[in-house]
Amino acid sequence: MIEILNISKSFNSTPVVRNISFSVDPGEVLVLLGTSGSGKTTTLKMINRLIEKDSGKIFIESEDTDKLTPYELRRRIGYVIQSIGLFPHYTIEQNIAIVPELLGWNKEQIQNKVNGLLKMMNLPLTLKPRKPHELSGGQQQRVGIARALAGNPSLILMDEPFGALDPITRQELQKEFKHLEGAIDKSIILVTHDIIEAMVLGDKICLLNEGIIQQIGTPKELLFNPANEFVREFFSQHKLQLELNTITLQDLVKIMGVDFLDTNINPDTTLAEYQTHTNKDRALNFDDLLKTYFNHRENLIKQIKHESCL
Ligand SMILES: Nc1ncnc2c1ncn2[C@@H]1O[C@H](COP(=O)(O)OP(=O)(O)OP(=O)(O)O)[C@@H](O)[C@H]1O
Asked: What ipTM does this complex have?
């Protein structure tokens, strides 16, 4: 678990992050979302001390990170960035093994870890002796994620991790990442300016503007119960698409009080995901489902507002 208490940062006397506090539980993904220059990357870099904060406290597993050296701290944190950052002269295997080597694991442990992570990221073991430039961008990003998970860190920081990928590879990796076994018990903080990505991947979203938190909550809370005009405006474009990516079949069942779902469909499926299912996998056709949603939308919004006040 990570707890951030009132951290701030100024550059040349201009505040760029102001009194930010949040916490991320194990198994939770918190997305830092906001316009360009709102302080997302600065916040992330203060956590692994690539930027030193001016004030405030950060605790990882209840330990005050100021008491650790930056080197000790970074070994405990997985870090994935948009430009991937693999070492070009190292093989794929050596790249993934960097942190386990630093942690002094034996050869067999490292072998097992590297093989397990490659399998988990759907990469063939034959890539192990290759250099990063011999892989596609999507494969390199998968290796970047594998490397971040290699030392079993409890915290993963991701800065626009899918930003450099084409839209199809990006969607594919987002989808896999959402269900990634190796990330299940980690606290994950992910920076993006892509609203749909934030909705799809975030358990919680922290929306920033000019270094100030505008709202922290579930995607549904931000979308349907915005704390202020900035939040409302931020989500006003593509509203329907965002709703379809946020509302699940389970939400509809709950509000209707009737279980209309097939037993073989996951109730956490979003309406957007349902739209892409083939006909044979669907109990209802999508148009009927959409009608049902709009018939119950107002009640659903009321319920979400009620729940976010509790
Ligand atoms: N080392 C630095 N020196 C001076 N100003 C900086 C430095 N790093 C960042 N800034 C400024 O701090 C502000 C916040 O930058 P930051 O990179 O955290 O924003 P961001 O929300 O991640 O933006 P983006 O989505 O464009 O990456 C910006 O105005 C930026 O110009």
From this structure: 0.96
